[in-house]
Amino acid sequence: MKRIIVLGIVVFVVILAWTGAWFYGASFITGYQRQLAEADGVSTPKLTCDSFGVSGWPFAFDVTCSKPSVTYGDLTVTAAALKGSAQVYDPFHVLLIAQAPMNLADAFTGSQSRVDFTSAEASARLTGWRIARISLVADKPVWNDTVLDDRLLARADHLEAHLVDLPDLDDAKAHLAGLGEYVEIDALNAPGFEINAGKATFEGVLDKLPDDVRTYGDADLLKRWQAAGGSFTLKGFNGTDGDTHFSATGQLALDAQGRVNGQVKLSSKGVVERLGSLLPDQYKGLIVGGQAADGSYSQTISIAAGLAFAGLVPVGVIPPVF
Question: N or C: which end of the chain has fewer CB within 10 A?
Answer without folding.
Answer: N
